[in-house]
Structures are given as structure tokens and as C-alpha cells.
Write a structure and sequence with these properties.
The protein is mostly helical. It has two domains: 64 residues; 308 residues, ABC transporter involved in vitamin B12 uptake, BtuC. The strands form two sheets. It has a two-stranded antiparallel sheet. The protein has a two-stranded antiparallel sheet with strand order 2-3. Strand 2 and strand 3 form a beta hairpin. Helix 6 crosses helix 13.
């Protein structure tokens, strides 16, 4: 076991050197050897640390220690699970409400980004996590929502709250248009077709100058506004409050995220959610059992697109500007990574992963030259060490560990 691990360690270190040394060393016109070898040494040290941890975990001393600590671990777990889930939810909501009052404007803006990615992740979780349809063009629905609000508000003066239902309708139509040709496809073919549709929508927005202003984008959209009654000396009047501050936009994003969480949870526990899971596990068996697979797959695309359209409209209203370059293929990959990292089909996992993948890069912005390298390494390590995700869904976790146990018994 140790010899095999050492062989892997040297092999991975060698290929890391091939990747890192030219990338870091030739950042300038001349090769910066000290800098390149320092960065490579950091990654090799991380690999060595992982190897040491693995050796320790397979040692007899670690097993004895874990067995002795098992009762304490079980006792702590029992105490945590004894607290009703609603109290954790209330505590999380209280933190989310207090957050903008206790931080600066930059961190409030980061919080809004986290909430946007939470909604996007939960919407894609319907398509990928529940229905099992690998969608690599999901960000296109985000663009549909953003441009729906932008065009309706700029050309017809329709306010934000009336544009949202229209954007949801456009998103559902786009989801059905993209989803219908893929109903008979699975796996890699499905991923390629959805990726192609996503790029088609982005290129259409980029090249349709008369409608979307092309790469220049659209700007000047009105901020969301609240209209409420107020009693003054002159009688009842209606007051308009424009949500211009970051704090006001944060609370609007929080409301959208909370409604999305509630909606996705209810869908997951409904008959439709169980039918989606049946399609994900075995589409042929589900169809033979009487599940209308075609319509349910279209419904998954339409509902996932509707959530993305809502938050896309909010995104355009927040910036008062939208551009096709906001909706590149990499954004679809990040949203898919959120779903996989958090746990396919897991609502809490998607929320945690969305916060991690959107907030942590901002915290380490000073290391921007290596952020994507660290991002890729973290994703690869996560898939190897914990393939079920950070907070896996109960069904998914049982499936993965059952497969591992079966392989262990065969070996």
C-alpha cells in the first residue's frame, strides 16, 4: 500500500511540475526559477501532507484512537440531531438578516453574489440533481431573464415586478425549446447538446445588435421599487421607495433565495420530485412503471429555467447593465460545480457550496493568478475524497457507499 502511494505521489508531483513550472515561471519574459519552484514545492508539500494523513488513517494506532473516540462522536452527533432543524434554519435566517448591518459595502456585494449563485445552484439542482439531466448550458436561462427585464424595461417602461412573471414565462419557453430536442439523449450527448444551445443563445445576444446592442450591452434599467401607502395630513398617499442601496438589494436577493429554497424543497418532497428521482435512477424502469418521463423532463427544464430567469432579472436590475460576456460557458461550469460539490440532489449542500465557491475566491482575490488553479485542485480532491459532496442527499449517499461496499466485497 505504501509503495503504491509513493509511486502515485512521485507521478503526481512530476505532472504538477510539468504544469506549474512553465505557467508560473514564464509569467514574465524571463524564467523566474525561484518563484516557479517555490509554488511547485507548495503543491508537492500539500500532496505529501495528504499522503501522510492517508498512511496515518490506515495505521493501527489511528483505528484504536477512532474506536475510543467513537462514543464521544456519537454523543455529540446525537445532541446536535436532537435539536429540531427549524432552530438551525431560524439561526441561519437571523444571521442572513443581520449580515448587511454588521459588514461593509464590499462584503454586502459579495453576499448578494452568494445569494445569486444559491438560486442558480438550486435551479440547476432540479435538472441535474433530481431529474439526472446533465445541463451544460444552464447559464443561458440566466441570460434570458436578464435580457427579458432589460428589454421590457428600456423599451416599454415595464417595472421590475411585472417583468419577473414575463421573464419566468420566457425562461420556461426557452427551457422547453432547449429540453425538447434532448429528451431521447443521455450522458455525454445530452451535455454536448445543452452546451451548444447555451452558446447559441450567448452568440445570438452578442450578434443581434439592433435588439440587444451586441457586445456593448444594455444599460439604464430602472432599479426595483416598492410602492406602499402612507397616511399624511393631506390624506392617504402612495410612496415609492427605490431599492438603490446595496443593503436593500441584498434583502431582495435574500427574499428570492428563501422563496427558491422553499419551492425546491417542496418539489423534492412531492410526487413530482420522486418521479424525477425515478427517472434519474432508471429511466426505462420509470417509464414502464407509468411515469410520463417526457413531460416530467420538460417540466424539470422549465422549472429550473424559471428560477434562473428570476435571478437573471434581479442581476440586470442590480447593475442596471447587462452584457453577453456575463453569460459565458464558464459560468455554467461554476454552477454545475456548485451542485456537484454540495451534493447532487441536496438543497443544504448546494447552499453551502454556493457560498464557498462564490465567497472564498473573493477572500483570496490577492492570489488571483492562482485562484483557478487552486479551484481546479480543490474540485479534483473533493471528488476523490468525498464524491457524495459536502452535505450529500440521504439517497445519494446510500447509493455511493453501497457501491463502494460492493466493490470492497468483490475484492
Amino acid at each position: 500500500m505504501v509503495q503504491s502511494d509513493l509511486k502515485k505521489f512521485f507521478t503526481y508531483s512530476f505532472f504538477l511540475g510539468i504544469l506549474i513550472l512553465p505557467l508560473v515561471g514564464f509569467a514574465t519574459t524571463t524564467f523566474d526559477a525561484p518563484r516557479a519552484f517555490t509554488v511547485w514545492g507548495v503543491f508537492v508539500a500539500i500532496l505529501a501532507f495528504g499522503l501522510i494523513i492517508k498512511v496515518i488513517r490506515h495505521s493501527g494506532g489511528y483505528k484504536n484512537l477512532s474506536d475510543s473516540l467513537a462514543p464521544i462522536h456519537k454523543q455529540i452527533k446525537d445532541k446536535l440531531t436532537a435539536v429540531p432543524a427549524k432552530y438551525y434554519i431560524l439561526a441561519l435566517l437571523a444571521f442572513a438578516v443581520i449580515y448587511p448591518m454588521a459588514t461593509n459595502r464590499y462584503l454586502v456585494d459579495v453576499g448578494i453574489t452568494c445569494l445569486i449563485y444559491i438560486v442558480l445552484g438550486l435551479g440547476l439542482n432540479i435538472v441535474v440533481g433530481l431529474a439526472g439531466l446533465l445541463d451544460l448550458g444552464y447559464i443561458a436561462f440566466y441570460a434570458v431573464g436578464a435580457y427579458s427585464y432589460s428589454l421590457l424595461n428600456l423599451n416599454f417602461g415595464i417595472p421590475f415586478w411585472f417583468c419577473i412573471p414575463i421573464g419566468i414565462a420566457f425562461g420556461c419557453i426557452a427551457g422547453c425549446i432547449i429540453g425538447y430536442p434532448t429528451l431521447k439523449m443521455r450522458g455525454d450527448y445530452l451535455a454536448i447538446v445543452t452546451m451548444g444551445f447555451g452558446e447559441i443563445i450567448r452568440l445570438m445576444l452578442n450578434n443581434w445588435d439592433k435588439l440587444t446592442a451586441g457586445p456593448n450591452g444594455l444599460y439604464g434599467m430602472a432599479k426595483p421599487a416598492l410602492v406602499y401607502p402612507s397616511i399624511t395630513d393631506g390624506g392617504l398617499t402612495w410612496v415609492t421607495f427605490h431599492l438603490k442601496s446595496l443593503e436593500a438589494l441584498y434583502f431582495l436577493a435574500l427574499a428570492i433565495a428563501v422563496l427558491t429554497v422553499v419551492g425546491v424543497r417542496r418539489l423534492d418532497r412531492s410526487r413530482i420530485g420522486r418521479a424525477w428521482v425515478a427517472i434519474r435512477e432508471d429511466e426505462v424502469a420509470a417509464e414502464l412503471s407509468g411515469v410520463p418521463t417526457m413531460w416530467l423532463k420538460l417540466l424539470a427544464y422549465a422549472l429550473g429555467a424559471s428560477f434562473a430567469s428570476v435571478v437573471g432579472g434581479f442581476f440586470a436590475a442590480k447593475l442596471s447593465y447587462t452584457n453577453p460576456n456575463f453569460f459565458i460557458f464558464m459560468e455554467s461550469c461554476i454552477v454545475l460545480c456548485i451542485v456537484v460539490l454540495g451534493g447532487v440532489g441536496s438543497t443544504p449542500g448546494v447552499i453551502v457550496a454556493a457560498v464557498i465557491l462564490s465567497a472564498v475566491p473573493e477572500i483570496f482575490r490577492e492570489l488571483q493568478n492562482y485562484r483557478m488553479l487552486a479551484f481546479g485542485a480543490a474540485m479534483a480532491a473533493m471528488m476523490v475524497l468525498r464524491p457524495e459532496g459536502l452535505i450529500p442527499a440521504t439517497r445519494r449517499k446510500r447509493e455511493l457507499h453501497a457501491a463502494e461496499q460492493h466493490q470492497h466485497e468483490e475484492s
